[in-house]
Every structure is written in structure tokens, then in C-alpha cells.
């Protein structure tokens, strides 16, 4: 009797057991798809012309998938990722087709650390050495070029400065309305009221009072016309002198 009852129970439950086994398989598949939806990986290849990359995650290598751009509408920006850059591999459909997968690049790593570690400083660095930086706290924008040239604008002080790699300087102070151009010891300083030129120890200033020249000698067409020049064939009287001698 007992064996008969057990067989009857098994027959009654067999369909449910099969159903539960199928549910278990379905749950395993769902878990597999969920685990594949978001993965951290590293770019192993980049095709900028197609806007696609391959991502290595664990022991797996993705097919060619699309990667995000900063903007892709009426306003477009291109920033292609680098081999070795860390990313999130997003499989939004959970399937095995690369059409449903894309790479969200830009995760900092040891190979590509943060360009700025200050919250008020936004920075962009390029592989050739160019660096663009804006400090929103100081209101200062810097552009460092690969050859050592610096271009800087200070919005608070209203000063724009360019310092070239050879040491030459160009600066405009909007508050003072003054422009400076300097190459080693030679310079030109301009403001609304005057222009001052300095070179080799001599100075020329032009302002409302006229022209002021300080230097060891003044020449014109090779002839000394400064305060040390002399006139030949001069006799005191009403006659005019000959041209000055060199």
C-alpha cells in the first residue's frame, strides 16, 4: 500500500518537478544575462573611422562595439578613446549580439590617471603635451602648449598673458589699459596716453608732451643729429649752417 501511495504522489508531482527544473534553467539564463549587462573592461583596439572598439573583460574579448561621444547631435564633439583606457561595457539588451552593446569610456586608471584632482579645476590633457585648464575658483584659464608656451587669462584681474617658449612675453592689462610686448631686454609699453620703446639701453617715449629720446646718439641717414653733432663752416651771424657732419 505504501509503495502504491508513493507512486501516486510521484506521478502527481512529476509535472511540477519538470516545471521547477525549467524555471531553474530560466533563472540561470537570467542571471547570466544580468551579469553580462554591465562589465568593467579595458579597450584592446580602437577604430576611430567607424567609432568602434573592442573591450577585454576578464578572459573575454568583445566584438567591435560602438563607444560614446561627448555630443552627437546638431552639436558634435569627437574624443576617441585610447587603447588601455578603462570603460564600462554596457549590454542593454542582455543578449549576445554586439548591436545591443556599447562602451562608456573615461574611467580613470593607473595608466590614465585624473587630469585634475581639485573639484574647481577642469582640465584636458592631450598626448602631445598640450593641456587646457580652467580654475573656476580663481577664474583663471591656462593653455599650456607642448613647446612650453603658456597662454593665460585671469578674469578677476582682467589680465591676459602669453609667455612664449623662448621667454618673450605679451601681456594686456584691461584694468590699466596697458599692453606690454617684451623680447629679452627690448620692450614696448602702450597705454591710452603714451608709447614707450626700450632697446639696447635707449628709450623712446611718445606722449602728449611730444617725443622724448634718451640714448647715446641719434642718427639720420647715417649722420649724427644728436646733442653731440657739429656743423662745419659756421660763422656767427644770420647765415644758416651747412648740414651736420656725421
From TrEMBL:
Gene3D superfamilies: 6.20.150.10, Gp5 N-terminal domain (2.40.50.230). Residues 40-97 form the Gp5/Type VI secretion system Vgr protein OB-fold domain. InterPro entries: Gp5/Vgr_OB, GpV/Gp45, Vgr_OB-fold_dom_sf. Residues 226-246 are annotated as: Disordered. It comes from the Bacteria. Pfam families: Phage_base_V (PF04717). NCBIfam families: phage_P2_V. This is Phage P2 baseplate assemblyprotein gpV.
Amino acid at each position: 500500500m505504501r509503495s502504491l501511495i508513493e507512486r501516486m504522489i510521484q506521478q502527481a508531482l512529476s509535472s511540477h518537478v519538470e516545471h521547477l527544473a525549467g524555471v531553474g534553467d530560466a533563472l540561470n539564463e537570467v542571471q547570466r544575462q544580468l551579469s553580462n549587462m554591465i562589465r568593467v573592461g579595458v579597450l584592446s583596439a580602437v577604430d576611430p573611422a567607424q567609432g568602434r572598439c573592442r573591450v577585454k573583460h576578464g578572459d573575454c574579448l568583445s566584438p567591435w562595439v560602438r563607444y560614446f561621444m561627448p555630443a552627437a547631435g546638431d552639436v558634435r564633439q569627437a574624443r576617441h578613446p585610447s587603447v588601455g583606457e578603462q570603460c564600462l561595457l554596457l549590454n542593454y539588451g542582455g543578449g549576445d549580439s554586439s548591436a545591443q552593446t556599447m562602451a562608456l569610456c573615461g574611467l580613470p586608471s593607473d595608466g590614465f590617471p585624473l587630469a585634475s584632482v581639485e573639484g574647481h579645476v577642469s582640465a584636458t590633457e592631450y598626448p602631445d603635451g598640450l593641456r587646457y585648464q580652467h580654475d573656476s575658483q580663481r577664474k583663471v584659464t591656462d593653455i599650456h602648449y607642448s613647446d612650453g608656451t603658456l597662454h593665460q587669462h585671469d578674469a578677476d584681474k582682467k589680465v591676459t598673458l602669453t609667455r612664449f617658449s623662448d621667454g618673450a612675453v605679451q601681456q594686456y592689462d584691461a584694468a590699466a589699459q596697458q599692453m606690454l610686448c617684451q623680447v629679452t631686454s627690448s620692450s614696448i609699453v602702450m597705454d591710452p596716453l603714451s608709447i614707450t620703446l626700450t632697446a639696447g639701453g635707449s628709450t623712446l617715449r611718445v606722449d602728449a608732451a611730444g617725443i622724448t629720446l634718451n640714448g647715446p646718439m641719434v642718427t639720420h641717414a647715417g649722420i649724427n643729429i644728436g646733442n653731440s653733432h657739429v656743423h662745419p663752416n659756421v660763422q656767427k651771424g644770420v647765415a644758416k649752417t651747412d648740414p651736420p657732419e656725421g
